[in-house]
């Protein structure tokens, strides 16, 4: 197939200072939970994206000096020459495919507690560090400022030595010392580095000029800048200082990489923001500079990308998450395979890897982070090892992905589901408020399967032990999912909750089926991810009187790792929910619920005509109990995230017919013992 000519503009080369990007697809810096801690995994992940056609591929934030040490975060590090080989390897992998490598150099002053180096953190003014570390930033004196400029210059030279083509001056997300100097609320200095915007921007200007001087002959020098902090007058705005800063520095960098901050706004989930949500903030930048401008907005549609370029809003299409969900997105557009794009669903499971300093994972792309350690390529898979037939029961994310990947291998696959609609939990959850984009998990796989003559999908086909036997497939995988418990068993109540006769108990499955109880409703969330907050929101929007109860100190606590917690709690409050944190449900009676304070056991009674219990799920594994020789995958094996189900289905497909293996099922790198 060939490229649709209307997308030609996306494949024009772009000159960036002394280097040229081969097309307009630009993978902006993004964290991956691997960095220096899992370097081979990281380098192969970036190399795979180069193979997939991205013209520029950047590192995540890269520590330049031990005075800004993010330990235990598993990001990039370039403290001295000993760190160069990892990055040289990454650059070589990227250059193999004619792409450019970018280094997001950073000194993260006030956002690091220096837990390993034990240096006193540095910033423009005395201030507590981010998070709740009991550590303060020391106000930098002139000698510190001179030193920081030297450290940045030295790091740029190391980046050049490693083979980078593009070096960043990072002024984004309130995550760098330069952005802290720029900030009207962090910088309280009265010298030439404080006060007016020109003074607050002095350090950035000096570093930008010195970086260009040090490496600008062969490396492009980019600025990454958040034009709006969404704090109104308290911070930088795109109509105020954000614009003024770009006007001041307009032609100084070789490229502008612009966005909004903090990270939770820049990487907003689809639950809260649609694709292109940053366009209005950054659209002015191209009017102020002639240098190439990169912006992001979870762009997955090539038509939207073309219109951004043609309307003069952006020169290059920035992408972090779309490049994670589909490392081959540019190649697919180039080859005229638009339908094959695996679109990001905006769930931010990828972010959770960074938060946990564990290798990145992605809901849509089960191979993300597995490129090196398992040798999983996002597009290629080994052909089948036998002519065996496979029956998969359940067409949720696990069953669909297993069928798709087995179909790609060439197996003859039958996928059967008792429901009238494919998708399992995703078919239900995509109807929760804000989660419609999650349906892409199903849509992508259904389309792929529909193109495979060797895969057949049968809906309204409930399987029983007898029909399993009758079918007589060589391999059977049960992807029959899980159901929410109605007994309250969960973290806070391992033996369940005392429930009186006549009490109306519901689960998220009931709410997703559209049941809206009359009278006051209590949503008890002992799950702590999105489900409790989402069903509460659904009920509130349907007009219910909702009280949200959780033993945690806040609503949907785990969603900190998807950058959503604040937005979820705000939304419930805005919709009128009453919220009780630090409370367990001690017992449920016909029209009341008794809450117990998790700290001092104090009791209180609330009126409740119905209680929605969101605590845990139990596998639907009756077929396995009857036929224990079959394999369980996805939630039927261990209820978890949608990402885990997709991964489980993919793994089953990869490993079918492989010899059993008892050891660690992936490659590892070990820290070497020092000879001294
Ligand atoms: P997972 O996340 O593991 O993919 P889901 O709960 O999303 O699990 O999907 C499970 C699917 O299995 C549902 O669509 C459900 O209708 C289907 N299912 C469950 N039991 C049977 C059965 N006995 N026969 C056919 N389909 C079944
Ligand atoms: Fe997109 Fe979710 Fe994958 Fe992140 S984990 S890239 S948000 S689909």
From TrEMBL:
FAD/NAD(P)-binding domain: residues covered: 389-613
Residue intervals of the NADH:flavin oxidoreductase/NADH oxidase N-terminal domain: 10-338
Gene Ontology MF terms: FMN binding; iron-sulfur cluster binding; metal ion binding; oxidoreductase activity
Alphabetized Pfam families for the sequence: Oxidored_FMN, Pyr_redox_2
Superkingdom, taxonomy of origin: Bacteria
Keyword terms of this UniProt record: Flavoprotein, FMN, Iron, Iron-sulfur, Metal-binding, Oxidoreductase
Essential cofactor(s): FMN; [4Fe-4S] cluster
Family, similarity comment: In the N-terminal section; belongs to the NADH:flavin oxidoreductase/NADH oxidase family.
Name by which UniProt lists this protein: Dimethylamine/trimethylamine dehydrogenase
Species annotation: Cognatiyoonia sediminum
């Amino acid at each position: 197939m060939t490229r649709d000519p209307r997308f030609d503009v996306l494949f024009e080369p772009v000159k960036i200072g002394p280097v040229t990007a081969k097309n307009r697809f630009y993978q902006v810096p993004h964290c991956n939970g691997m960095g220096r801690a899992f370097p081979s995994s990281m380098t192969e992940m970036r190399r795979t994206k180069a193979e997939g056609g991205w013209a520029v591929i950047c590192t995540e934030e890269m520590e330049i000096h031990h005075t800004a040490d993010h330990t235990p975060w598993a990001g990039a590090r370039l403290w001295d020459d000993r760190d160069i080989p990892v990055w040289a390897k990454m650059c070589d992998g990227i250059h193999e495919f004619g792409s450019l490598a970018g280094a997001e150099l950073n000194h993260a002053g006030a956002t690091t507690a220096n837990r390993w180096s034990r240096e006193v953190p540095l910033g423009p003014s005395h201030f507590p560090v981010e998070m709740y570390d009991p550590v303060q930033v020391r106000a930098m004196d002139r000698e510190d400022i001179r030193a920081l400029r030297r450290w940045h210059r030295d790091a740029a030279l190391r980046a050049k030595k490693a083979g980078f083509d593009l070096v960043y001056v990072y002024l984004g997300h309130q995550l760098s010392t330069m952005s802290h100097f720029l900030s009207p609320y962090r910088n309280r200095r009265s010298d030439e580095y404080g006060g007016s915007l020109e003074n607050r921007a002095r350090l950035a200007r000096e570093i930008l000029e010195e970086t260009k001087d040090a490496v600008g002959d062969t490396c492009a020098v980019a600025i990454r800048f958040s034009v709006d902090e969404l704090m109104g007058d308290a911070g930088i705005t795109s109509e105020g200082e954000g614009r003024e800063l770009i006007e001041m520095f307009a032609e100084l960098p070789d490229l502008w990489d612009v966005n909004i901050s903090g990270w939770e706004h820049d990487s907003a989930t689809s639950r809260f923001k649609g694709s292109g949500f940053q366009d209005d903030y950054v659209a002015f930048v191209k009017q102020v500079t002639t240098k190439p401008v990169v912006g992001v907005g979870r762009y997955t549609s090539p038509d939207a990308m073309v219109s951004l370029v043609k309307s003069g809003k952006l020169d290059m299409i920035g992408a972090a998450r779309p490049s994670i969900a589909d490392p081959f997105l540019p190649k697919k557009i180039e080859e005229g395979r638009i339908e094959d794009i695996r679109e990001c669903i905006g769930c931010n499971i990828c972010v959770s890897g960074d938060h946990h300093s564990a290798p990145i994972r992605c809901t849509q792309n089960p191979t993300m982070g597995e490129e090196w350690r398992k040798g999983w390529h996002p597009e290629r898979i080994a052909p089948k090892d036998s002519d065996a037939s496979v029956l998969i029961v359940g067409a949720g994310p696990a069953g669909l992905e297993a069928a798709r990947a087995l179909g790609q291998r060439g197996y003859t696959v039958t996928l059967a589901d008792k429901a009238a609609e494919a998708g399992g939990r995703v078919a239900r959850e995509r109807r929760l408020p804000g989660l419609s984009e999650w349906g892409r998990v199903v849509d992508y796989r259904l389309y792929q399967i529909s193109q495979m003559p060797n895969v057949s999908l049968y809906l309204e086909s409930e399987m029983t032990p007898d029909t399993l036997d009758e079918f007589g497939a060589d391999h059977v995988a049960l992807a029959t999912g899980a159901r929410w418990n109605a007994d309250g068993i969960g973290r806070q109540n391992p033996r369940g909750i005392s429930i009186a006769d006549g009490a109306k108990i519901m689960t998220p499955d009931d709410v997703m089926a559209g049941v809206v109880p009359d009278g006051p409703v209590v949503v008890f969330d002992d799950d702590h991810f999105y489900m409790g907050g989402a069903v509460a929101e659904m009920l509130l929007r349907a007009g219910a009187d909702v009280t949200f109860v959780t033993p945690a100190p806040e609503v949907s606590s785990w969603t900190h790792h998807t950058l959503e917690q604040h937005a979820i709690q705000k939304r419930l409050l805005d919709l009128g929910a009453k919220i009780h944190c630090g409370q367990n449900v001690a017992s449920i009676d016909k029209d009341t619920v008794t809450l117990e304070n998790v700290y001092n056991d104090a009791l209180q009674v609330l009126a409740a005509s119905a209680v929605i219990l969101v605590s845990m799920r139990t596998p639907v594994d009756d077929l396995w109990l009857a036929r224990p020789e079959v394999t369980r995958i996805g939630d039927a094996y261990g209820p978890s995230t949608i990402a885990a189900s997709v991964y489980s289905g993919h793994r089953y497909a990869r490993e079918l017919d492989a010899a059993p293996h008892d050891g660690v099922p992936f490659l590892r790198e070990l820290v070497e013992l020092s000879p001294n």
